[in-house]
Amino acid sequence: LARVRVGGARDLGAAEDSAMHLDTLQFSDWARFWVQVIGELRMGVKLKKVNYSRTPIEYELTPYEILMDDIRSRRYTLRKVDGAIPQSVKKDAHAMILEFIRSRPPLRKASERKLPPRRREVTPREQLLASIQVGRQLRPTPYSRRLCEYSVLSTYSLLQNESSK
């Protein structure tokens, strides 16, 4: 592991810890070095144990959480808001809704409405039984014709053989 080759052999020896020499290594050097390390690990090289503690994870607050934090810590003073909607606005909205409803054509009574008859859906069981009842027509095969032709020809050839004797 002490040597990394680029063109010729370069001895990293004591300069291995130097950041300057590490920066000068090219991608191919690092790739070759990585292959060597993995090869040695496969051969059974033991790595020394290192005490490692995770750094705490930092979370970023959403804008809503930032605002709520500011309100809780009383960095801002909130003004009172009159939440009451004026009566005229309420009446106007109510009147607009009623006007829209009245402008629509009136609905007929349910007893006057006639629906088409409900379609009967065929269950998979019924489909299977129906397909069994219908059955399949057998397709004629050319084999049966050949068999007939063969028997006729063989009979004809037998008759010729007997007549030639």
TrEMBL record:
Domain WH2: 124-141
Cellular component, GO, one term: cell cortex
Pfam families xrefs: WH2
GO molecular function, one term: microtubule binding
GO BP terms: actin filament network formation; actin filament polymerization; actin nucleation; cleavage furrow formation; establishment of meiotic spindle localization; Golgi vesicle transport; polar body extrusion after meiotic divisions
InterPro entries: Spire (IPR029901), WH2_dom (IPR003124)
Membrane-crossing segments per the record: none
Protein name (record): Jg10376 protein
Gene: jg10376
